[in-house]
Amino acid sequence: MFESLSDRLGGVFDRLTRQGALTEDDVTAAMREVRQALLDADVSLPVVRSFVRAVTAKATGAAVTKSITPGQQVVKIVHDELIRTLQGDDAPETLQIDTPPAPILMVGLQGSGKTTTTAKLAKRLTEREKKRVLMASLDTNRPAAMEQLAILGQQVGVDTLPIVPGENAVQIAKRARQQASFGGYDVYMLDTAGRLHVDDVLMDEVQAVRDVVNPRETLLVVDGLTGQDAVNVATEFDAKVGVSGVVLTRMDGDGRGGAALSMRQITGKPIRFVGLGEKMDALESFDAERVAGRILG
Ligand code: GDP
User: Per UniProt, where does GTP bind (predicted)?
Assistant: First the structure.
């Protein structure tokens, strides 16, 4: 197991004399530990560097009150800065899906958890926000993926667009839009095809669908355990199709979730939800407090 940042810092400050404020030496020693804790949590190196710089500036000279130890003081400064970075300050709190039928485009690589997340989110919107949701799979290359969405739809009680063999992604998207309008749905979710790597064919297809439906939200689903790769995937998708928010899956795994920090810092995109397991209820709103706690250990 990883050592928590509090434990690491406890060790550092035990060796230092207690003063009224954090000195530069205190902070330098502490930042070595902060840096290592972030790297252990799989935060990417450039993000670690800029984060440590920001925290150093805030911590140097900070007053230490009698009630807390210098170590606790540094942990608090790091924690607050993590929250600030993870939350950002520009993103709207909720999905922008007020005007029916609102299209949500789900994009991402194959295996990221895109189809599962589509069904989880449809269930959530249905149950918590009382939306009428229609789901459609655009993965014409993988009939099994289309079937999978239909099965998950049945499981969560959400309608899926009937499968018509031979249609391409744009045709399915248009049919979904039509069905959503005529059927009185509030939201229609398009589960786009995934591939093992970002490639031009995939991007061209997603762009064509985007241009037809003009999505209110384009949610990128990425595997939260893939660290820097997740950030690279997000950067590529955003450049090509424009991403409005990110869903990090497999945050139930062993990792410390540092990808969330790198993602927010590098792409500037809000993390909307986190996947916490295979079950259909295992999707939660992104909670910066919780992720910060986990990164710090
Ligand atoms: P897609 O190819 O991107 O559509 O991926 P799928 O939705 O088919 O998911 C691939 C596998 O990952 C499935 O076995 C899912 O149950 C699993 N999965 C998806 N999200 C999560 C998650 O948040 N946590 C865990 N542990 N497994 C997940």
Answer: 108-115, 191-195, 249-252
